[in-house]
Amino acid sequence: MLRYSITLSLAALVLATATASADVYKYVDEKGNIQYTDKPATLPAERLNVQTQKTDVVAAQERQSQDLKRMQNASQTQQKASEQQSEQKAATELTAKDKAERCVKARERYDTYANSRRLYEPGADGERRYLSDAELTAARDSAKASMEELCK
To answer: Which of 149, 28, 35 has the alpha carbon at shortest distance from 99?
Structure first.
C-alpha cells in the first residue's frame, strides 16, 4: 500500500513537471535565421520564459457575440445607407423626368401662344372671350418667361 501511494505520488509529480516544463528555446541556425523550438538542434540556445494562461471560454464567447452584433449593426447601417441612396437617386430621376415634362409643356404652350393670331379665355357660361392685343402680348411674355424658367 505504501509502495502504491509512493508510486502514485511520483507519477503525479512527473506529470505535473511534464506539463509545467514546456520550455521554449531561441537559437540562430547556420543560415542566420532565428528559430524557436522546444528541442534546440544546437547549443547554446537561449531559453525563453513563455507563460501561458488558460482561456476563459465564457469571456471569449461574449467577445465573439459582441463582435457578431457589431458586424450585424454595421451591415444594417450599410444596408440602410444603400437604401436611402437608391431612394434619393430614384427621387432625383423622378424630379429630372418631371422637370423635363414641364419644360416640354411650357415650350408647347409658348409655341401655341406665339403662333396663334387670336387667344381666348373660356367664360363661365361656355362662351369665349378673346384677348386684346395688350393681353395677348402679356400672355406671350408670361409663357416665354415660364418656358425659360422651367427649361434651365
So the answer is: 149
